[in-house]
Design a protein that fits this description.
By secondary structure, the chain is an all-beta fold. It is built from no helices and 16 strands. The N and C termini lie far apart (39 Å).
Length: 191
């Protein structure tokens, strides 16, 4: 009833008991709407939600206290991504270390997500550094897409310095902004 979905949005809220939550709103053509409250009470010990995103199919992703990533597919319950929580050991191609923080996330369809994670490097050659990794999350698995220090294509001296995620539209499209160092100096980003 009400036609096709024209807009989905996610809002961080507190219940009347003070528990944190995420309110998912769906607006359909003709004004019909649906609201769904996702409780974060079970994760309140991790801190307040710091990022939230919803995909066009109702999938959602939430970062709690910068410490834990929660995702869900349409109509499912939120579940923690075990590899993306503070102090978890993360082994990715060319980047082994300990998760320090989940900095940002965008939800994708069918419970997938893309996240920016800060990793304390434990592998030789980079031990003690904190690097950011841009990762894809699907089915509970985590795959590195890029990491700070990676070279930019066709630019021998330029490397990735940090990542920002932006969703400029109501659909599933999003932008990854790569801040980079050119010859050792950070290049400012116009946002």
């Amino acid at each position: 009833p009400g036609g096709r979905t024209v807009r989905r949005a996610a809002f961080l809220v507190k219940t009347d008991k003070g528990d944190p939550g995420v309110l998912l709103a769906e607006v359909k053509g003709g004004g019909a709407h649906k609201l769904e409250l996702l409780s974060l009470a079970a994760h309140a010990d991790q801190g307040s939600p710091t990022a939230v995103s919803v995909a066009s199919d109702g999938s959602a992703a939430v970062v709690v206290g910068g410490a834990r990533l929660l995702v869900r597919g349409p109509g499912e319950r939120l579940g923690a991504v075990g590899a993306l929580k503070r102090n978890a050991i993360l082994k990715l191609e060319g980047l082994d270390g300990q998760v320090r923080r989940v900095a940002d996330v965008v939800a994708g369809p069918k419970g997938s997500a893309v996240a920016v994670v800060e990793v304390f490097v434990t592998e030789p050659g980079g031990a003690g550094e904190v690097r950011q990794a841009l990762v894809a999350v699907k089915g509970g698995g985590v795959q590195k897409l890029r990491a700070t220090g990676d070279p930019l294509p066709d630019a021998a001296e330029d490397v990735v310095d940090s990542f920002l995620l932006r969703r400029p539209t109501a659909g599933d499209a999003f932008c990854v902004v790569e801040v980079f160092r050119q010859g050792g100096a950070s290049v400012p980003v116009d946002t």
